[in-house]
Design goal:
single chain, 101 residues, mainly alpha, elongated, Sodium:solute symporter
């Protein structure tokens, strides 16, 4: 899943970099923050999902700013966030149950 996220970030960046020079700085910021969020999600930490959510909102705002936003850009972040929340809530419930049952 993390390879898919990195490829999606790079693919979106190459499309916008041709027209907007300031986008490079925002892309670099997203990449620097995106790698720890992927690691956090990989280790099943709540902060990884929160950080990825922040990056997703930031990227949506970026697309809106450059008039390149489409509703389909919400699909991948929504699926990733929903799956991670579902998995994290299930793992927390499993930790709370007594081991003898």
């Amino acid at each position: 899943m993390s390879i898919f996220l990195i490829l999606a970030i790079v693919a979106n960046a190459t499309a916008l970099t041709k027209n907007f020079i300031w986008y490079d700085a925002v892309f670099l910021f997203g990449l620097i923050i995106g790698i720890p969020s992927i690691v956090g999600m990989w280790k099943m930490q709540k902060w990884g999902v929160i950080l990825y959510s922040f990056i997703s909102v930031l990227s949506q705002l970026m697309f809106m700013t450059v008039n390149k936003w489409e509703p389909t850009f919400l699909i991948t972040p929504f699926i990733v966030i929903a799956v991670n929340i579902f998995v994290l809530s299930g793992s927390r419930q499993a930790k709370e149950q007594p081991a003898g049952l």
